[in-house]
Write a structure and sequence with these properties.
This protein has 13 helices and 24 strands. It is of the alpha/beta class. α1 packs parallel to α7, α6 packs parallel to α7 and α10 packs parallel to α12. The protein is globular. The structure holds uridine-diphosphate-2(N-acetylglucosaminyl) butyric acid. Cell wall formation. Adds enolpyruvyl to UDP-N-acetylglucosamine.
């Protein structure tokens, strides 16, 4: 643990420009989709983060040749020799990511059986996979839970089905898509998640030869096809990372331009950012031409000076305010005058990190009640899932231990905003989702170093 610490000298506004690449929550799924093709796929703008390494390792174990392309961040997947891997080999990746659960459909199609190790990911609630398994059974898969992991087979092949999700889960929607595209017949998924990363996955599958209709009211219809080919794709940029740097700019009274950030995918965040009192400007991309070097698109975020405003917000599925935007923004809300309210409706235990902020001088109370109008599954189940943030609070330095990815980034922002020197332990966890974050901190003028 002692090596895994960042010493942060806070109190300096972040100033400068950084770039975000392909969305973590799309890229890893796009990599899994490559398993379905009968020819190579090519993915651009792949960030160097741990989830990518885990999926690359798992694909390799299943015979997919993964090589670096000529462009920085380009990966090429050759699925010509897909083969089974031993449970021991696969279990090397146990507990390291949640993506392995999405290998079910593609492996069942390619091999007729699949073994899925124990999942990892952030500890932000129980994170069950019941919707995934229920959907796979509906397609005709047999699922056996054994101590070492999940064994699946499809003795009679996979068949289209009508299925309604109890909640618009991102992962379960992806599970259905990755399975239905090559299942025999038509699948109708109701109450599907429609996050931009899911729409981008649908674009990839369509490029591969899939037939997918996205209807209104969260209904997705997939007509199975017998064969898919490889794709070439440049993924949507990471809107969670972009919002995290925006929140860091606001909390440190700085000015950060996030190249690659896209307005359309961040509309809900931008509305809240403006309501809090932050300012932003969208710069559209312009292709270079004679006499004009062109311009890379992005969004500049800054603190305009003066006081920030308290707001009330609820996290929700798309098009609502993302649960992953919540933790970084709350740090900025500790600097707003008045009472801000945050009602977390996606995960039941995603406010634990507020204790660390309180240890730095913030004034945040968490409640079991639903402090918001969105019908929420947690109110009657006794989870502390609403927060009231009283501000502004002067943050002071502290020793912090990072509990999970997004909370970790919020700890980091708090340390950057606080007066004095903080020690942030467990920072390697941030590498799971934020590419080169230490280099980006340096580019933004932060005073942070490994001891
Ligand atoms: N849920 C179930 N049963 C299931 C699946 C989900 O009850 O079978 C519940 C979950 O417990 C949770 C809710 O449904 O309360 C939403 O979960 P969802 O399935 O949508 O989340 P996920 O697919 O596991 C992805 C992202 C998360 C992001 C959520 C919500 C990836 C790898 N992860 O998780 O990202 O918070 O969607 O947008 O795509 C992160 O990047 O730090 C992260 C946690």
């Amino acid at each position: 643990m002692t090596d895994d610490v960042l010493v942060v000298h806070g109190g300096t506004p972040l100033e400068g420009r950084i770039r975000v690449r392909g969305a973590k929550n799309l890229v890893s799924k796009a990599m899994v989709a490559a398993l379905l093709g009968d020819s190579p796929s090519r993915l651009f703008d792949v960030p160097k983060i741990r989830d990518v390494e885990v999926v690359r390792g798992l694909l390799g174990l299943h015979g997919v040749k993964v090589t670096d392309g000529t462009e920085d961040g380009e990966l090429v997947f050759d699925p010509a020799n897909v083969e089974s891997a031993s449970t021991d080999q696969i279990n090397v990746h146990a507990g390291s990511s949640r993506i392995p659960i999405l290998f079910c459909g593609p492996l069942l199609h390619r091999l007729g059986h699949a073994f899925i190790p124990d999942l990892g990911g952030c500890h932000i609630g129980p994170r069950p996979i019941d919707f995934h398994l229920q959907a796979l059974r509906e397609f005709g898969a047999t699922v056996e839970k054994r101590p070492e992991g999940l064994h699946l087979s499809a003795p009679n092949g996979l068949h289209g089905t009508k299925f309604a999700l109890p909640y618009p889960s991102v992962g379960a929607t992806e599970q259905v898509l990755l399975t239905a595209v090559m299942a025999e017949g038509v699948t109708e998924l109701r109450n599907a998640a429609v996050e931009p990363e899911i729409i981008d996955l649908i674009c990839i599958l369509q490029k591969m030869g899939a037939i997918i209709k996205v209807h209104t009211d969260r209904v997705i219809e997939i007509q199975g096809v017998p064969k898919l080919h490889g794709y070439t794709h440049r993924p949507i940029p990471d809107r969670i990372e972009a919002a995290s740097w925006a929140a860091a700019a606001l909390a440190t009274r700085g000015h950060v331009e996030v190249l690659g950030a896209q307005q359309a995918d961040m509309m809900t965040f931008l509305n809240v950012f403006r309501s809090v009192g932050g300012e932003y400007e969208v710069t559209d991309a312009r292709a270079p031409k004679l006499g004009d070097p062109g311009q890379e698109g992005g969004i500049r975020f800054w603190h305009p000076g003066g006081e920030l405003n308290a707001v009330a917000l609820e996290t929700d599925v798309h098009p609502g305010f993302m649960t992953d935007w919540q933790q970084p923004l709350v740090v900025a809300l500790t600097q707003a005058r008045g009472l801000s309210i945050v009602h977390e409706t996606v995960y039941e235990q995603r406010l634990g990190y507020t204790e660390a902020l309180n240890s730095m001088g913030a004034n945040i109370q968490v409640y079991r009640d639903c402090l918001g109008g969105t019908p929420c599954r947690f109110g009657r189940r006794n989870f502390k899932h609403s927060a009231v943030i009283a501000g502004p609070s002067k943050l002071h330095a502290a020793d912090l231990v990072i509990p999970d990815l997004r909370a970790g980034f919020s700890h980091l922002i708090a340390a950057l905003a606080a007066e004095g020197t903080s020690r942030v332990y467990g920072v390697d966890l941030i590498n799971r989702g934020y590419e080169d974050f230490e280099a980006k901190l340096a580019d933004l003028g932060a005073h942070a170093e490994r001891p």
